[in-house]
Amino acid sequence: MSVYLLIALALTLTTSGQILQKVAAHHALARDEQTHFIIRILYVPQTYWAVACLVAGTMTWLVVLYHMDVSKATPFLSLGFILVTLVSRIRLHEKISLHRWLGVILVTVGLWLVAMT
Amino acid sequence: MNPKSKSYLYMTASILLSSLAQLCMKAGMLLLATHTANGWPGWSALLDLPALLWVGVGLACYGTSLLFWMSAIARLELSLAYPMLSLSYVLVYLVAVNWPLLHEHASWVRTLGIFVVVVGVILIARSDTSKGKTTI
User: At what angle do helices A98-115 and B87-98 cross, to 10 degrees?
Assistant: First the structure.
């Protein structure tokens, strides 16, 4: 399998993991207020889907790193920040101001610089 | 404490714990790497208690960090909170170049990158105009 396909898979998994965590936390918030939030989280199925995505995503990244140098792979990894922001806008209907976009882009560029050797 | 400050507190705990997790795993893996046979960990690695303890503590930190993270994003927008996780890279970098065990090399370009990330996070934090209400 091409390593770029693996990168796409890893990005999809980690982004889905984040969105699912947000959805799970949102559902947990709506549940019975008597129990502690952490306990409520454990009763929401999306929590486990989120963890599954994050674990699978991390494992996929490890396979990517086996085939590719860290300094080459990190720029792709940092694209995750842009992806999560885009999906938050589309699926979670969050409003992304110009300031926030600029911040996300600076974070991404900063991580590229750190990865350069 | 109002819900918004609480969310930011949870987020700080999550970032600190995930950075600690990275460093523990790295320390554990460095110890495990001394057991290699043909590029894979040899069987003797299974008996290296200090190494396994580092890795175990790292995993426990990750698990706890995840619970704090979910508590944080329950009341924060994901597009606001998620990029702030990059602060964990900043922390890990600062420790990795200063901790004698790792002594990874620092460079001007890397330090500039860290600075750019921090400026990005400050911009994102300033874009928080919510009052701690839930989204979706």
Answer: 30
